[in-house]
Write a structure and sequence with these properties.
Radius of gyration: 33 Å
Strand order of the largest sheet: 4-3-7-6-5
Structural class: alpha+beta
Order of helices and strands: HHHHHHHEEHEEHEEEH
Number of helices: 10
Strand content: 5-15%
Length: about 325
């Protein structure tokens, strides 16, 4: 087994620590491969051989992630020498694959020691020269950036290694990190928190399981969301219409009183619930005010809460299947 003294001093998920974890797996696979007689148990031999060939992911991470960082520090040796070593091993894998496909057991027995010996020698150079020098040359930020790139390539391990740097769970209400934005701000508007395009806002409002109507400070309807299944139908003709003409005569008085109290600042919310077509509908009105408490209108929100009201107990598991 490999010497993990360097490995244990590195934090979980560090690229070099992951390489050492793969080393342990490679040693195990090589020992298994040596112990199997391909002529007697070809299926088992192929399974172990296939697993060992996932070492290609390790080669690719080194060539596309580690070596470029080392080149930036002026160390080009690994890119020139070790890459050629990788290619030699790749060729040995291809040769053995042909031997296996043609069940050339004598050739398998002849060629497999060259592959095994080559991998052992490669790991020795990694552990004694490549990784120690890389740890001396590269900064923690280099390793962090490298690890991000490694995610696209993958590892030999059965499960993805621990994230690096390891980040404990932080509740969204306590997350004050100023992150670099990784999405385009083109055609977006800046809201109190975050950015959205008009299309995204429309999709958000259309998808919400609520009927929303916005009446401005002049009692004119200026917006409603066009959901798939509205409780109360609306049409584009109400845009610009006085809200008192958008309710049946028997409820207009109540609506006007709500607007008057909201405008005076004596109330901020009013709620009702009615039975409508066999469903329980929850209707709420909210006063809209700016930062200086000036009245800017009202939101009318309606929601079918029949199924919500019937909820009991808990549901913590996904039941799609």
């Amino acid at each position: 087994m490999s010497d993990n003294s360097n490995n244990t001093q590195l934090p979980d998920g560090h690229p070099v620590r992951v390489y050492f974890q793969e080393n342990d797996l490679i040693h195990q696979l090589l020992e298994e491969l040596v112990a199997i007689n391909s002529n007697e148990d070809l299926t088992k031999f192929i399974n172990v051989f296939n697993h060992l060939q996932t070492i290609e992911k390790r080669f690719s991470r080194k060539e596309n992630q580690l070596f470029p960082f080392l080149e930036k520090k002026g160390w080009n040796g690994p890119s020139q020498g070790m890459w050629s070593f990788h290619d030699n091993l790749r060729e040995q894998f291809r040769l053995l694959r042909k031997n296996i496909e043609h069940k050339e057991f004598d050739k398998i027995e002849t060629n497999i020691p060259f592959l095994i010996d080559g991998i052992y020698r490669l790991m020795q150079v990694e552990e004694t020269i490549l990784f120690p020098n890389a740890l001396d040359l590269l900064s923690e930020n280099d390793w962090i950036i490298m690890r991000i790139g490694e995610e696209e390539i993958g590892w030999m391990l059965p499960e993805a290694p621990t994230p690096f740097p390891s980040v404990a769970y932080i509740h969204p209400s306590e997350d004050f990190t100023n992150r670099e934005l990784t999405f385009s701000l083109e055609n977006t508007s800046h809201f109190d928190e975050g950015y959205m395009t008009v299309e995204q806002v429309n999709l958000l409002l259309k998808t919400m399981p609520l009927d929303l109507t916005f009446v401005d400070e002049n009692d004119k309807v200026i917006f409603y969301n066009r959901g798939e299944e509205r409780v109360f139908p609306r049409s584009a003709g109400i845009i610009g219409r006085e809200v008192k003409f958008c309710h049946p005569p028997k409820s207009v008085g109540t609506v006007l009183k709500i607007l008057d109290e909201f405008r005076k600042g004596t109330q901020n919310e009013s709620s009702f619930w009615i039975n409508f077509k066999g469903r329980l509908i929850y209707i709420r009105y909210f006063a809209v005010r700016d930062a200086d408490k000036n009245y800017k209108g009202v939101i009318e929100m309606s929601q079918d809460i029949t199924d919500i009201k019937n909820i009991e107990g808990e549901k913590r598991l996904l039941d799609w299947e």
